[in-house]
Amino acid sequence: MMERAFVIAAQGDRHKNVERLVKNIRSYSILPIHILTTEDSPLLKFPVELKEFDVFFEIVEPVWTEGPRAAIRNSNYWKVNFALEHHYNSLCMLDDDMYIVDPNFIDGFTIAEKFGVAIPANPRTYNCFNMMGADVRNEDINEIALMKIPPSIPAVNFSPFFVYPHAGYASNFLRTLTYELKNVPCRGTVAIVKAMWNSQFTPVILPEQWCVCGSNAQHIKDYTKILRGQAVNINPIMLHLGHDEVRKVFADIIEEN
Prior knowledge:
The structure is a single chain. By secondary structure, the protein is α/β, with parallel strands linked by helices. It is 37% helix and 21% strand. The protein contains ten helices and twelve strands. The protein has helices spanning 15-26, 47-51, 70-85, 107-115, 127-130, 138-147, 168-183, 188-199, 217-221, 244-249; strands at residues 4-9, 33-37, 55-59, 90-95, 98-100, 117-126, 154-156, 161-163, 204-206, 224-227, 230-233, 238-240. Strand 2 (33-37), helix 2 (47-51) and strand 3 form a beta-alpha-beta unit. Helix 3 runs antiparallel to helix 7 (168-183) and helix 7 (168-183) crosses helix 8 (188-199).
């Protein structure tokens, strides 16, 4: 039987986000939930609220301690490193500000178990536009140019990140990604593209509905197609609540703490 689990990485005072996500996961699934955090994390002061949801805390060491993106970079690295070091057959790795809204999210595990990795498309569409993010350095732009990565290669998101970590094709990609995240700190989604290019492995790129971001929130909520003569709603699967516009557009289906 496949051993599956969820992994959430959170650094700093993220208790409300983590509690909301854990409750949200438990409304759909009884799979184990691992929370990666530091030994001084405020999260560890709230075990009573989380204990009933059968979660496991994993203490990890920060790789970066300075800079406005340090917590995000640590979280990205911790999740991928966890996937390589633990025994689970497949994992759903999540940022703590994600929110499941469709039971078909479970398909992500199955897709990863067939193809190795599955991650959602980014609304920036192409990597050249993802490279315009505020946290991208000139060094990153120069490196991408030297690698001759085509500017129109798809831009991706980092969460949800479904992975079947111990298959040879996927593990090589993860090892390459771990190196990029730890040794060439940059925007996590740019590191994924670099790891794809260097490992010659392509994840399945899921539609934007798997990670609804602010810029496309209303469009995705309203999205329909005429199929067999009738309008069919094409529903989102996960929301990125770190974007205020997503919280506003989907307020009717989000259960806050």
